[in-house]
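Entry type: protein chain
Record version: 2
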Amino acid sequence: MKSILNHLSAFKTLTQEQAHDVLFNIAHEQYNKSQVAAFLGCYTMRPATVEELIGFQKALLECCTRIDLSEFNCIDLVGTGGDCKNTFNISTLSAFVLAGAGLKVSKHGNYGVSSGCGSSNVLESLGYKFTAEQDVLKRQIDKTGICFLHAPLFNVAMKVAAPFRKELGIKTFFNILGPLVNPSFPKNQMSGVFNLETLRLYNYLFQKSGKRYCVIHSLDGYDEISLTGGCKIITNEEEIVLYPEDMGFKTVFPKDIENGATVEDAKNVFLSIISGEGTEAQRSVVLANSAWAIKTVRHDISFEDAKQLAIDSLDGKKALGVLKALIDM
């Protein structure tokens, strides 16, 4: 590791093979804590290159415990985080809206690092029990339409890195990697990213993956469709910039979609929205993200039809029914 750190401190980059080997060794605890912290710190000074990220991704996929959900045409909705916007748990709420609309969701997530409350935090606070047992997860997705894959249970590298990420408290390359290493390898994916550079990177990687995909970035910095302004969207078919009115929504203010300060606050916001008691701004943001996710899987239908499916799920309390069924299981 010393030679790698010297190499990086000289403003040099790693080859794909070097990046793979370092992360693989981190996962297997071959380095001391100071070395790992220093390595992660190098990438707070500059973004990882495409070659480095591909190497990191390969190492994470080698380290992960795979789960076979291939009988379901699953989608994952997950953002990179790291946008420092403290929004409520939009992608997690959208995941339940999709399940309520009849789609199958294998949601990959983790505890919040650069944000106060990640998807794992809010689901755990609602009473969901994390598991890596394939039979249990298959029953959940079969009966309710959704299961949740808590990243550290499936990937030793994520587990080993978690304490360092928490202590650093800022985004690292793990933010970029998280959405790329869902252990169920879903055939469909909608991912939000925190900058245009990562948007391009994801498009490049997804083009080679064979997935149906949708990558989104709101131009004012959000890793989701925030409706606070324009949003860049790249799918298998198109690359467009849309504004709220283009999707039939009003522009919202950043404060309208902020989360609470604690996990308990986030849980209350989550329950309010899924129960149909959220604000119009909160509802609109969930519907916009849900509609694009539905269209990612059902690419044969119009955006308006996808939006109506999302409305029926959220306003008709179908998403709430999915949440209750999942917790009951």
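Comment: The chain has a mean pLDDT of 93.
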